[in-house]
Specification:
By secondary structure, this protein is α/β, with parallel strands linked by helices. The protein has a single domain (about 1-320), classed as Alpha/Beta hydrolase fold, catalytic domain (Rossmann fold), CATH 3.40.50. Helices cover about 40% and strands about 15% of the residues. The chain contains eleven helices and eight strands. It has helices spanning about 1-15, 25-30, 80-85, 115-130, 145-155, 185-190, 205-210, 215-220, 235-250, 270-280, 305-320, and strands spanning about 30-40, 45-55, 60-65, 90-95, 140-145, 165-170, 255-260, 285-290. Strands 1-2-4-3-5-6-7-8 form an eight-stranded mixed sheet, with helices on both faces. Helix 1 packs across helix 8. The longest helix is centred in the middle third of the chain and has 18 residues, at about 115-130. It is globular, with a radius of gyration of 19 Å. It comes from Nicotiana attenuata.
Length: about 325
């Protein structure tokens, strides 16, 4: 009985609305508005989307387009960040990427990141078209892990659209600590030509390597939309291709950015974040490396550490709005 009660308590924490009857009641108590819907991309893919907006009494000071990481989605732990940002005056929008969350596609299969970039840009332009009052507001990208790499690719494809980017442990290069060793990559490359959706790539559990607090590992594992299988061959090869490309284009990055990374991150490499900071053309650039923190900075750390990271994000945004 006690174990069931603990599990129920964890589930309640995860949905962020405590003892309030519904999710919408929780948003009301937080003083924000939230919507969810489906968006059809130009390639006719059905993608699940959410928004988190300041209350009607508080006109937004800026727009943030958010991108989640590999195997994650926008409806579970991810939304704690846009909720806080909306409470501080920022209109936040996000979609579940292809093969993730409630969007169409084989689970955790991303055959071509270039198509994902087009999906994101199409959705962001749709949001701006439907909300002309947002046109003159500062527009920011926000990406976690794989989402950080996608934000950089979005910027490289549309360099004048955004006023800045917040990159949380960006996957500019897959860490050698989780990258498959020779001769596995060579063998998998050959096999992927015949069976790209095969989920057999040997890697450690990313949840275990990302989240520091044991209780939060339980919460993260309860996500019904979380992908728990091994990475698919085609996805891994595509992420290797994309991160190799991004790491070769760091010197072309030319927008204001904030990079936040944990020194103890073994999923994405903080050294590559340092390299991005050093090589980027951007005149307005900030790098913060948090000593001892792991990959999941905005959920998996202690509440005190999460608040430090949130405060740094808000301070950076406030200075630019």
């Amino acid at each position: 009985m006690e174990e069931k009660q603990n599990n129920k308590s964890l589930q309640t924490q995860l949905y962020y609305w405590g003892n309030t009857p519904t999710e919408q009641d929780y948003y009301n108590l937080q003083g924000i508005k939230s919507t969810k819907s489906f968006f059809t991309s130009p390639r006719n893919l059905t993608l699940f989307t959410r928004s988190w907006l300041p209350s009607a009494k508080t006109p937004p000071r800026g727009i943030i387009f958010m991108v989640h990481g590999y195997g994650n989605d926008i409806s579970w732990t991810f939304q704690a960040t846009p909720i806080q940002l909306a409470k501080n005056g920022f209109a936040c929008f996000a979609l579940d990427l292809e093969g993730h969350g409630q969007s169409q596609g084989l689970k955790a299969y991303v055959p071509n990141v270039d198509f994902v970039i087009d999906d994101c840009l199409s959705f962001y332009n749709f949001v701006l078209t439907q909300n002309p009052e947002f046109q003159d507001l500062p527009k920011f990208l926000y990406g976690e892990s794989m989402g950080g790499a996608i934000c950089l690719l979005i910027h490289l494809k549309s360099p004048s659209m955004f006023n800045g980017a917040i990159l949380i442990a960006p996957m500019c290069k897959i860490s050698d600590k989780v990258r498959p060793r020779w001769p596995i990559p060579q063998f998998l490359t050959i096999l992927a030509k015949f069976a790209p959706t095969l989920a057999i790539v040997p890697t450690a559990d990313l949840l275990d390597k990302s989240v520091k607090v044991p209780e939060k590992k339980i919460i993260g594992g309860m996500n019904p939309n979380r992908y728990v299988g091994k990475p698919r061959l085609g996805t891994v090869l595509e992420l290797l291709r994309v991160t190799d490309y991004v790491s070769s284009k760091l010197c072309d990055v030319n927008l204001p950015f904030l990079i936040l990374h944990g020194s103890a991150d073994v999923v994405t490499d903080p050294e590559v974040s340092r390299e991005l900071y050093q090589l980027a053309k951007s005149k307005d650039k900030t790098l913060k490396i948090y000593e001892g923190m792991m990959h999941s900075l905005l959920f998996g750390e202690t509440d005190e550490n999460v608040e430090i990271v949130r405060s740094d994000i808000l301070a950076w945004l406030n200075d630019r709005c």
